Amino acid sequence: MKIKTIKTRIFRENENLMEFILKYLKKIPKKNLEQSILVITSKIVALSEGRTKEIDKSISHDKMREKIIKAESEYMLRTKYTWLTIKDGMVMASAGIDESNADNKIVLLPKDSFQAAHLIRKKLVKEYKVKNLGILITDSRLLPLRAGIVGAAVGYAGFKGVRDYRGTPDIFRRILKLSRTDVADGLATAAVLCMGEGKERQPLALITNAPVEFVEKVNKKELYIDPREDLYQPLFARIKKIKNIKSKNYYRF
C-alpha cells in the first residue's frame, strides 16, 4: 500500500470542492485512480458546505464552545480538558468542532460525511471513467489512555469499511468468533499520519494498492456498535438510551 499526499493552496469557505479536487488530481495519471482511494480531510468538506461558526466575543469562549458542542452532539460530558461527546455514533472530543487552521472561526464536521463521500465518488467516477474508486473523509481523534491524535474515518464510499473474519479459521484452524478489522479507520490513521495536522497544507491524499474490497454501495452503519455491546461497555455502564421528540437516539449519564 502506498500513500501519496497532495499539497494544495489554502481552501476557503464556500469554495467549490469538486473544482478544487479536480484541479489537483490533474497532476495524477488517470490510470492511477482505478482501484485507489482518495482521502479528503473533513475540514475542507465542511468549509465547502459553509459549516462554520463565527467566534462570538459577547460571551466567554468556553460558553460559546459549550453552546456549539451541545447543538452538534448527541451526548456530552465535561472532562478536565474538554467535552467528551458522542456524535454520529462515534466518541470524540467536542463533537469534532475545530479552531485550528480555521481563520478565526470554528469549523464543524460536515453535515453528512457519508453522503458527501458518495457524491464526490459519483462525480469522479463519471469524470475519469473508473469503476473501482474509494473516497475516504477523515478527521482526527484521541484514543483512551494514549497520548496524541490519530486519523479516523467520518465517512466513506466505494469500499467496505469492515473486513469480517468471523466464522473463518486462523492458521491453526481455530474458528474465529469475534475478529473484525476496521478497514476505514485503519486507512484514515495511515493517511492522516502522512497528511499532517499542522501547516503542511496536504488536505488530499491518494492511497494505491490498498487491501480493500471495492463496492458500489456501503453500509454506513457497519462500523457502529451499540454502547451496550461494546468492549468498553463497563466504562459506559451508566449510559441510558433515550429518545427525544424527534425520535433521534441520544445517550446520557
Automatic annotation (TrEMBL):
Residues 6-208 form the Coenzyme F420:L-glutamate ligase-like domain. One of its GO terms (molecular function) is coenzyme F420-0:L-glutamate ligase activity. The lineage of its organism: Bacteria, Candidatus Nomuraibacteriota. It comes from Candidatus Nomurabacteria bacterium RIFCSPLOWO2_01_FULL_41_12. This is Coenzyme F420:L-glutamate ligase-like domain-containing protein.
